[in-house]
User: Fold these one by one.
Assistant:
Number 1:
Amino acid sequence: MRRDEYVRIAQVEASHWWYAATRALLSQVLTPHLAAGARLLDAGCGTGATGGWLARHGRLAASDVEPLALALYREARPTAALAAAEIERLPFADGSFDLALCVTVLYHARVADPAAAVRELARTVRPGGVVCLLEPGVPRLRRAHDRITHTARRFAASDMRALLTGAGLNPLRVTGAYGFLVPPALVKALVERGDTASDLDTGRGLAGALLGRLARLERRWLARHDLPIGLSVLGLGVKQS
C-alpha cells in the first residue's frame, strides 16, 4: 500500500462508512467467540481501523510491517502493544492467542505466499482458537483502488476455504460480504481502466449514508445466512485440537 494511503485511513477511520460497517460486521461475527480477558491478535493491523476495537474485549497485540502504520496506530491508541513483523513471520509463541484477526493483508503484493501466512496465524492461536480473515473478493476484478493498494490477488469463497483448511483450521464460516457493491465495482473497473485512485476519496456525505444503510441491511441477512459472492470475502476457522 502507498504510504499516503495509511494517512488517509487514519484520518477517516472514524467517519468513513466502510470502516464503520466493517467493524460492525466483525463484531457481529466475532463477539460469540470473545470471552472476557481473551488474548487477541490484530495481524497486519494497519492503523487499527478494523481491529483496534478488539482491545475492549481482552488483551490485544497488534502487528504490521509498515512503521508508519504502527506510528499512526500508536498515536490513536497510546497503550497498544505493537510489534513490527511480516505476516509470514510473527514474533509470537505457539498458541499465544485465543483469536487472531487479519483484515485485507493477504491480497497484497508483498505477501508472497498467502497460505504460509494463514498457517502462521494458525500457529499463534491455541487449539480451539479462532482465526478470522477478511480479504477482497471477486478474483477477476481489477479497479483503480487495487492499483493504489498494490493488490496482487483477490479471493473467491473457495480460495478462502482452501486457505483455512490448508492451515489446519476447521472452517466455521465462509461468506461474501458487501455483495451490493459488486455491480457498481464492475462498472467502475471498466470506467477506471488504467487509472489509480483511492476509494477513501469517495463514499462520503449522502452516498456514504446510503452505503452504510445498505451495509446494515446486509448484516441482518448475514446474521443468519451466507452470501455466495461479495466485494469482500470473510473466513472464520477454528484450530483443531
Number 2:
Amino acid sequence: MRGAMACGSGELLFEEKFATLDPAWGFSETDESRTNGPNGLTYKLKPNDSRFLLNQASLYDDYEVCVTFTTETPEKAGTYVAVDIWGVDAKNVYEVDILPASGNYSVYRFQNNKLLKPVPLRKHDSINVGTKVTNELSVVVKGSKGSITINGKKVGDFTGKPPEGGSLVGVNFGTYDDDGGPSTITVSDFQVRKVADDGESAGAQ
C-alpha cells in the first residue's frame, strides 16, 4: 500500500503505520473485526458499526495530519473514513470525512457531544470513488483555519475553533445500517507534520 503521499514536506512530528497496536490509540484489548501488520490497521465492520481512535501521544498546535485509507464496500454503501483534528475527547472534536461510494466529503464538529456541520456534504472529483479504492487525506490547521487536500488536490478551506493548549488528532470510520453488508477499512499510514511556512499542504495542487 502507498504511504501518506498527500502530506507536505514539513518536519515529521509523528508517524504511525500500525504494525503494532500502540496503546496510545485506546484500542480495545480484543476486537474480532480488527487485524494489523505490515500493511496497516484493518477493520471489517458490519452495517451500523464504527470506530473512533484519538491518539493520546501528544498535543499539537498548527500542524498537518494526513492518512491513507483503503476501503472495500458494498455497492452504494454509506461507509465513511475521517481524520480527527482539534480534538479534546470524543465529545469535543472536529472530523473531516470522505465517503468513497458517493464521492462526497464534509467537516463535522462535535461540541459538548452535539453535532454541528461546518462544511456539509459536498462532491469533489479528487475523491477516488468505487467499492475498492484508496484515498489519501491531508488536513492542514493553522490558527483557526483548516485546509483540506484529497489525493494531492486541494478541495476547500474552513474555519474552526482549536482548543487552547494544543489538540489531539486521530481517525474514525464507520458504516450505516442500510449498507447491505460488511465494509473493510484499512489505515496504512498516519502522519503529523509541522505546517509549511505558507500554511498550505505541499501536496495541494
Number 3:
Amino acid sequence: MKLGLRSFTPVEVALLRISISFLVLSPFVIYHIRTIPKDKWKWLALAGIFGNGIPAFMFALGLSRINSSLAGIINSTSPLFTMIVGTLFFSISFKKESVWGIFIGLIGTVYLIVFGSTGKGDTDYLYVLFPLIGSICYGFSSNIIKLKLKELKPIVVTGGALMCMAPFTIAAVFIMEVPQKIISSPLNQESFLYVCVLATMSTSLAVLIFNYLIKQTTVLFASSVTYLVPMFAMAFGFIKGEALSLHYFLGMAIIVGGVWLTGKSTAK
C-alpha cells in the first residue's frame, strides 16, 4: 500500500484494490452466485462495506501520512473492536477477563497514537484516526460474517462481498482516468504492480483465509490473526527505511497483553 501511494492518491489505491480483488475472484463468484439466497445479499453488502470498502479507503488515507509500522500496530486492535461490536450490537457476552483485555489493548493503542511516530508526541492524530476507523469496521464485518453469513462458503462470502462494491469502484477507476495514469510512466506502472500484489494477497487471498477461519472457529480467534500484522508491518517498514523506536515495542507489548487476556476468555 505504501509503495502504491508513491504514484496514486489514497482514493485511487483503494479503488484499484477493491476492483482488482473482485476481478481475481470473479470466476468463483460467477460459479457460485446462484447458490446465494436473496436474503443474504444485504448482509454480503454490509460485510463488503465494513470488511473491504471503508477499511481500504481508511488505511490508504492513513498511510499517506503515517508509516506502515504504526498502521500495522493500529490494525492489531481489530480483535478488541470485534469484541466491543459483538457485545454492543450482536448481544454477545464475554467474561470479565475479556473486558479487562479490551481496556489494556486500548491503552496500548492510545500510547502508540501519542508516541508512535518519533517518541516525541508529534504523530499526526487525524491520519492515525483513519486506520483506527478501519479496525472498528473490521469488528462489524467479522461479527456479520460469523452470525449472518455462516451458512455460505468462505469463497462466496469473500467474492460476494466484493461484488457488491465492484461495479461502483470499477466505474470510478475509469471515470478518474486511472488506467491512463498507470501507463503514463514507468514509476506508475511499478506502483500499480504493488497495488496488484496488495489486492491479490492482502485482500483476495488473505480475506478468503480469514473468512474460512471465521467459519471454522470463533470470531475472536479468527480476528486474532491481526496480532501478527504489526510484526510484519514493522519488519517491512524497517527494510524500506522507516525508523523504529522503543515506543513501538512498548505499545505493541501492551496491546498483545490485552489481547492475550482477551483470548483467555470465550463467549458465553
Number 4:
Amino acid sequence: MVDRRLHGRVAIVTGASAGIGAAIAETLAHAGAKVVLAARRLERIETIARALEDSGFEALAVRTDVTSLEDMRALAEAAKSRFGGIDILVSNAGVMPMAPFEEGKVEDWKLMVDVNVNGVLHGIAAVLPTMIEKRSGHLVNIGSVASRRPFPGGSVYSATKFAVRGLSWGLHLELGAKYGIRVTDIQPGLVSTELFDTAPDFREGLEKAWEGKRMLRPEDVAESVLFALSAPEHVSVSEVLVRPVDQAT
C-alpha cells in the first residue's frame, strides 16, 4: 500500500547526509513528500537524492551550511524554484563535541551554539516568510532528551537543546493561532548515529556501558517526525520525547 500521508508537501531536511537526517528525508519521501536534502557533504546528499529519485520519489540535494544565513536563504529559494513552495522544515543539523567547562574549549562551545541554535534560527528566518504568506507550515526541530537535563561534559550541548526547546514553544505561541503554523520539538534519547564521532572517548565509554543494550535507530526518530507531521491540521504535536527502553536515565 502506498503511503500518501504527506502527498504533495515540500519538506526541507538539514543535516541530511547521514544518520537521523538521512532517515527523516527517506521516510518523508516514502510518505509522499518532495524532499530537499541539505548538508555540507554534497556528494553524500546527492547519492541519497539519486537513490530516492531512482525509486520514483522527488528529491533535491543542496549543499548548505546552516551557520550561514545566506546559505539557508538560498536553500529556501532552491526548494521553491524546484518544487513550488515550502511546507515543512526539519532542523536536524547538530554537533556534540564533548567540552567540559574545566577544559575551557571555548571554540567548541561557540561551534555548538552556532550550529545547534543559530542554525535553527537561520532556517526559521529563511522559510518563515513563505509559511506566513500561505498561512500554513510545519517547523520540526530535532532537540534532545538533553533539553530536559544536562550531563557531565555535555552541559553546553544541553544548553543549546534547552534553547531549541524554548524556541519551539515560543514559535508556537507567536505563529500557531495567528498563522496556522505548527511547531514540533522532537527529543530523542540515545541514538546510534555519527553524532558521537567528534567525541571518540565518550563514544568508547558509551559503547561499553551499552553493551547488550538497544539504542534508538535513526529510523525510530524519523517515524516520530512523521507522526507529528501526519497529525490533523488543527492538531499541533508540540513535543515528542522518544527514548530507548534500555535508557535508564
